[in-house]
Amino acid sequence: MSHKAGFVSIVGKPNAGKSTLMNSLVGEKMSIVTPKAQTTRHRILGIVNEEDYQIVFSDTPGVIKPAYSLQESMMNFVHGSLVDADIILFVTDINEKYDETDVIEKLQKTDSPVVVLVNKIDKSNEDDVKAKINYWQETLNPTAIFAISALLGHNIQAVFQFVLEHLPVHPPFYEKDELTDKSERFFVSEMVREKIFKLYEKEIPYSTEVIVTSFKEEEQLVRISAEIIVERDSQKNIIIGTGGSMIKKVGTYARQDIEEFLQKKVFLELFVKVISDWRSKKNYLKRFGYEQ
Ligand SMILES: Nc1nc2c(ncn2[C@@H]2O[C@H](COP(=O)(O)OP(=O)(O)OP(=O)(O)O)[C@@H](O)[C@H]2O)c(=O)[nH]1
């Protein structure tokens, strides 16, 4: 029996629903999902393994014009995923307000088959869905178009089947028990970062990075320390909150998720550290895993 395997890249503008789609296709929560744009910063692999196939999905940061070095690195992850892809899933919000010219230009340059996924149809109507499908047919002339709701799981099975049928015959790229290329530490830091995206406003989430500094497995529990890095003292005060009230919330919510993820009791300690303008400094971006 021939084994199929390949790379499937999920790309699109910020907030289109890429991470929601990835989680739905993989059947696990791999990527953090929040209502804010630019939540995803890395290229995150989600691997689906069956006896006769292996699909390696990549969730990528939303396509933007980079304003600072961190965003440049984020866009490098997108380019990398377009170059590798056997199939590209382009996710677009049916009610998209952004100008998508930059994504369209990128997609027109690739040799890989492009599938357009018109997402969030639960927030639309049949006429608008038809109009959008016609628009994308004319604009991109893609290999296929699906109208989906990543949130409600509508048409996701059809997309999955399409991917499977178009996957090349190839031996597996990863061990068949691997679910991702990222470490437990990475997912722990993402869970803390997700809470920061949900609990704080304006620039705070975008100025924040989370680094797991210690991860010790003991018999009864896992002891984890993490640093929340911000760019200025004023942001440090906001993260901590009056009498530590805000950081306590971050810690409590994150710990609950991490316990579920690790299936073990967790002791989580959070520290806040200021590194001025870390998002524009190459050495920090490298240390935080954004640069090769
Ligand atoms: N109504 C509706 N909302 C959706 C759907 N898919 C995603 N969303 C919501 O849209 C928001 C953004 O979803 P994400 O999956 O984080 O989007 P993303 O494209 O990964 O965003 P970035 O990481 O910023 O690039 C979240 O609030 C989701 O719950 C959908 O099919 N319908």
What oligomeric state is this? single chain
- CATH domain topology of the largest domain: Rossmann fold
Tell me the distance between the termini. Answer: 38 Å
Number of domains: 2
Ligand list: guanosine-5'-triphosphate
Helix content: 25-40%
Q: List the total number of helices.
A: 9
> Could you spell the SSE succession in H and E letters?
EHEEHEHEHEHHEEHHEH
Question: Mind telling me the C-alpha Rg?
Answer: 20 Å
What do we call the CATH homologous superfamily of the largest domain? Answer: P-loop containing nucleotide triphosphate hydrolases
Mean pLDDT: 91
Strand fraction equals 15-25%
Strand order of the largest sheet: 2-3-1-4-5-6
Structural class, by secondary structure, is alpha/beta
What about the largest sheet? 6 strands, mixed
Offer a concise description of the structure:
The protein is an alpha/beta fold.
Descriptive overview:
The chain is of the alpha/beta class and 292 residues long. The chain has two domains: 4-165, Rossmann fold (3-Layer(aba) Sandwich); 184-287, K homology (KH) domain (GMP Synthetase, Chain A, domain 3). Helix content is 37%, strand content 24%. It has nine helices and nine strands. The chain has helices spanning 18-26, 69-84, 101-109, 126-140, 156-165, 184-199, 233-240, 245-262, 282-287; strands at 4-12, 44-50, 53-59, 87-93, 114-119, 144-147, 209-217, 221-230, 265-274. The strands form two sheets. Strands 2-3-1-4-5-6 form a six-stranded mixed β-sheet, with helices on both faces. A three-stranded mixed β-sheet has the order 7-8-9. α6 (184-199) packs antiparallel against α8 (245-262). The longest helix has 18 residues, at 245-262. The two termini are 38 Å apart. The mean pLDDT is 91. The chain binds guanosine-5'-triphosphate (GTP).
